[in-house]
Design brief:
single chain; four-stranded antiparallel sheet; alpha+beta; 31% helix
Length: 87
């Protein structure tokens, strides 16, 4: 989670030109959910670079999911869910 937040904050500062970033973390019923939202320029696409692909690969290696919403001009939201249960 630390790596994901660090990378998301770096992307928001470097690419999104965001003025506000919100990070929320919740652990409930053996699931950790992390969201990182910014008010930047949006338009983030995994196929445009390796950063988002690397994040997805790391989360999926842990059995989790990552969803990206990044409409042009409306910021970016990453939503990550990872189960803490032992399969």
């Amino acid at each position: 989670m630390y790596y994901l937040v660090s990378e998301a904050l770096t992307n928001a500062a470097k690419h999104a030109h965001a003025s506000v970033v919100r990070v929320d973390l919740e652990a409930k019923e053996a699931v950790v959910q992390l969201s990182v939202r910014d008010d930047g320029v949006g338009g983030a696409r995994p196929e445009q670079g390796s950063g988002l692909i690397g994040l997805r690969d790391r989360i999926e290696a842990l059995g989790g999911t990552i969803d990206l919403a990044s409409p042009e001009g409306k910021g970016t939201t990453l939503l990550v869910k990872i189960s803490l249960a032992d399969g």
